[in-house]
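Table S4 entry, Cysteine-rich CPXCG.
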Amino acid sequence: MSVLEPASIQCPYCWEPLEISVDPSVREQQYVEDCQVCCQPIVIHAWFDESGELTVEAEAENE
């Protein structure tokens, strides 16, 4: 069982900082998660490089 990796993003709608959790067993992933503040859909793209470092990008769903 893998432990979820914490990450910080900023909502592209209301600009609030948000904390998310990413599954490290999936090297590259893209999914939609609603903002915890304004409820708008955020497209999250997360990937782990060869050394296991996490990179996360968040964008508005309609971009």
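The first strand starts at residue 5 and ends at 10.
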